[in-house]
Amino acid sequence: MHCIGVDVSKQELVTYDGKKERIFPNARGLDEFTRFIKGSTDPMIVFEPTSTYSRRLEALCRRRQIACCQLNPRVVPHLRLVGKGRSKTDSSDAELLYRYGIERGQGEATQLENDALADESIQARLSCYRVVQKSRVAYQNVLEALSQDPATSSVLLDEVSEEIRELKRKEKQQIDAAQKLIEVEPVTKHRLELLLTIPGIGPITAITLLALFRKYGNANRSQIVALAGFDPIQIQSGTSVHGKSRISKRGNREVRRRLYEATLSAARYNPAVRSLYRRLKEAGKPEKVARTAAARKLLVIAHAIYKSGEAFSDQNQKEA
After folding, report:
1. What pLDDT does residue 257 have?
2. Architecture of domain 2-111 in this structure
3. Coil vs helix vs strand at 187
4. Which residues contact 138 (CB under 8 A, 6 or more apart)?
């Protein structure tokens, strides 16, 4: 197996294969890097996922079924501390990734599933939707302020109102585009329909959850909770340090936000979520604690339905 450590940046891929450092442009298609890979026998690529900058490399691994090891970005700084060097450069990071691949990568490497939605990601559409939504909310706040000022002309109010209507149209456009991507695969479309059967979960939350579940298809319940940042953290040391337990918040922030908002409806109409929410409130827990627990419960229910392929029912909730 030919191990290649790749440090990904916005413009370059810095690689190290145990013999030589090479630099390739991080351009659409990764043509130069692809030609280099073609000359390798049984390549294995070790890299850190860096959001949008590593998407092209991930897509290449999918298309060519190249084994890859996606290393948590928190690992490399620790490798640097225990190594000989302390400096951080793209070259040193590529070499650290290579050495990790030689020592442990073969047992951790996997082939990314060929995802028909990878080239035009659902996540990308959701990101565009969030940008438009923030702009729309900002304009609505401005309109509210201007409407209270008698000096504001009706022409300006009409212009801001028209801008809000246009942003709402763009929001719908992004969500419709995401749904069209989902409809490409009948199985994925069916799973989205299953998520929409859950009381409290609307189209945007369902699409957000679907993207998470698709990305981590092999994750179990505890892992998906951690990936959303709902896993608990305890702070305790000896007899003197006893901090309050809290959620880690190390996972997907957008998933947490969507689920937290969904609890407003789920706490009223979803029996299992309502029962948990009311029990915590009756026990004197703060509103934020009760809603966070309800959001975690909603995530677990949604994941159980996604994995089972069965529509929502009270039985699903009992098992979750």
Report:
1. 93
2. 2-Layer Sandwich (3.30)
3. helix
4. none
With contact defined as beta carbons under 8 Å apart, do 262 and 191 qualify? no
Other Cβ atoms within 10 Å of 131 Cβ, number: 13
pLDDT tens, 11-59?
A: 999 999 998 999 999 999 899 999 999 888 889 999 988 777 888 898 8
Query: In degrees rounded to 5, what are phi and psi of residue 198?
Result: -80, 120
Alpha-carbon distance of 267 to 265, in angstroms, equals 6
Nearest to 102 by CA among 28, 46, 148: 46
| Number of helices and strands in the chain (H, E) | 14, 8
DSSP state of 16: E
Helix H or strand E segment including 98: helix 90-100
Q: Are 252 and 228 in contact (CB under 8 A)?
A: yes
265-316 residue pLDDT tens: 999 999 999 999 999 999 999 999 999 999 999 999 999 999 999 999 865 4
Helices (H), ranges, 148-270: 154-183, 186-195, 203-215, 221-227, 253-269
Residue 89 main-chain phi, psi, to 5 deg: -135, 165
CA–CA gap between residue 276 and residue 257 (Å, rounded): 19
Spatial contact of 194 and 305, defined as CB atoms under 8 Å apart: yes
CA atoms of 130 and 292, how far apart (whole Å): 22
